[in-house]
Amino acid sequence: MVVTTARTRTRPPAGRGRRFRALVREARSWPTILMIGLCLLAGIPLTIALTPDQELRILGQHISVGARTPDLSLEGPARLVQIGNTELDIPRLQVVGPLRPQLEMGPVQRNDDAARVLNPDTTAEATAQAVDQLRTGFVNWYLLATLGVVGTALAAAALVGCARVLGILRREKASEHVTVADVWHRCSGTIGRMSLLAVTGSLVAWGACGALAYTGTMRGLAQVSSLSDLVGSARVSPAPVGPPVFGYAGAVIGDSRAARVGGPPVAGPEGDDVACERSADSLAAELGTMVPGRVRNLACPSATVAQGLRGPQQRGNVQVPAQVALLKQMQDLKFVVVAVGPNDVGWSDLIKYCYGVETCDDNLTRGEFDYRMGAFDRDYAALLEDLAALPSKPRVVVMTSYDAFPRDTDPACPDARGPSYAVGLTQDKIDLLTDRNDQLNAVLRAGAEKYGFAVADPGLTLLCSTGTDGLGPDLQGLTDPFAFHPTAVGSLRLAATVARVVGPLDD
To answer: Could you write out the DSSP letters of every residue in 135-190?
Structure first.
């Protein structure tokens, strides 16, 4: 009697054993295997892509913590996104698996918290605090994504479960004694086991992804001794040049579009007006007739961010000071207009190339354009930082780059056909030029939005179109001295567009 009781107590309950065997059988069925594969191969990447970033404030800087969109590689670096555009891999943070952290940083702020990392007495403490905040932010993002993983697993189980119910109903539809309730009663246990397996499998895989991501990230962060190791070295802003300047409400910085090359020369030129071929009907001059106060023209042809706006520019025998350096000496400015970008990405080289070859969408030029776009994005971020730090806190207006041709251009148009020795532009080439100009404008807009700057989109009548007013294109054609630059009417339209964005000025 006693022995029997002891054996009874050590025997596992029959119901538990049946449930375990049913769970094992379910795990071997092909619908469940398909469902788990769907959760792992599609559910987890989808969750990573859709989980929102965690917003942090680290050393006075705005940083978003999340994960980069998964790809097919087994291992890869974490990523840093600056000002929402430039995507830089962080080689120190190598992660195995699909879950690779991504940091979005910008705009850069100068404040007391940021200065702590430059103080030898507080560098170690500030760095440790930054690492701890990054760790906490990523863990919070991971926990939020875990809810998405569970939700995706349950959705997959429900989807496959419904498919199994519909399959049974279809097979037994000839039987009058089988109802939906009967089929549901038969399948409810199966669907429950599928849900359990989907959630368990997804959480195990997600836990492995998290462990690999955490290990790789923390191993890389342990090698970081300063913020420059993580995000690169700091940029030095141009020093002010010349004496303080008074009496101007606004200023225009930029390239030949703003200087308006090809127009009538300035009466009584000053400074670098002659070296920079500034016209009497430039953007700044026309803008000065539309807003109260004088507008100074600092734009210069061929200017880029690095050589022209943030650094000096050589024009023949004259070295023109950095436009930002001159801008810093202008007192009580109300607004600044920025026209930059095409020179940085080599737009004139690209359009000449497209005129001369059968197709210009080759890998070489594609790679060159991407390289120049990346360099411009980094330089543009530094320019925006300089403008945000101007002491008078003027309203900044970033002007986007206009297209040269509409998308529906007739290839027989003389400006599209080009010289007799050229191949000319086809619709595919014009679409390519328009797409790449759109990429440039996306960078211009995104950077401006990050800093709260305004954006002006020029509304010009392009080449090979007549517009609605019958005045013809607002751009100089191939037979003009400065092709693709604004005409006098085009410069006036640019000024009108900018004036609407500048709006009324405070007294």
So the answer is: HHHHHHHHHHHHHHHHHHHHHHHHHHHHHHHHHHHHHTTT-TT--HHHHHHHHHHH
